[in-house]
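>> Question from a student workshop board

For tomorrow's exercise we were told to take the sequence and the ligand below, predict the bound structure, and bring the output to class. My setup keeps failing. Could a helper post the expected result so I can at least see what it should look like? The ligand is guanosine-5'-triphosphate.
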Amino acid sequence: RLRVANLHKKELNFKLVVIGDFGVGKTSIINRYTDGEFSSSYKVTIGADFAVKTLEWDEETRINLHLWDIAGHERFGALTGIFYRHSVGAALVFDLTRPETFKSIKKWLIDLRKKVSLPGGLAIPTILLANKGDITTETIPADINDFCLENNIMAWFITSAKNNIQIDEAMLKLTNNALRNH
Ligand code: GTP
Ligand code: MG
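>> Workshop helper replied:
Here is what the output should look like for this input. Compare the format with yours to find the bug.
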């Protein structure tokens, strides 16, 4: 009976984009989330990459999260608009060991909001990830709460792709909002 029920599960596909400067840990976060793995070697992403995470949400619903990993080197370039297309959530990532990567968040956000919105015209739900929290948390910007409020960012998280901290929680936040908006 269960098998029959599962065959008729409703499938939802949500596209989420992960953006931020080069080397902040976007690929590492996605690999951790989708494969449960972490590598300390840095392989630069070229253009964009893509991975799927399937969530057996409830008895009736399966959610496929299509995670788009946008290369930091694309920096607000001509292609980002194509990569953002049809996304229903965004994770903005910066690196707690490099404060300048937080400064860039604003630019990524402007690029994102300029180029994509939900079908109704609303801004796509956005979260902010302060990554490499396993190395330091002393560098958390003092104004991060205000920054999120002023820029319509729903929530921020201290994450670590290395130690698997707060990544499931962050993605769940985006998924819940995607569900609400869909
Ligand atoms: P681009 O593809 O160039 O845009 O970079 P990226 O944002 O995808 O960064 P990537 O995930 O490749 O990580 C860059 C480096 O940081 C790698 O050496 C990772 O191992 C390291 N790194 C990523 N996340 C963490 C983390 O949470 N903690 C620690 N200690 N290192 C991390
Ligand atoms: Mg990458």
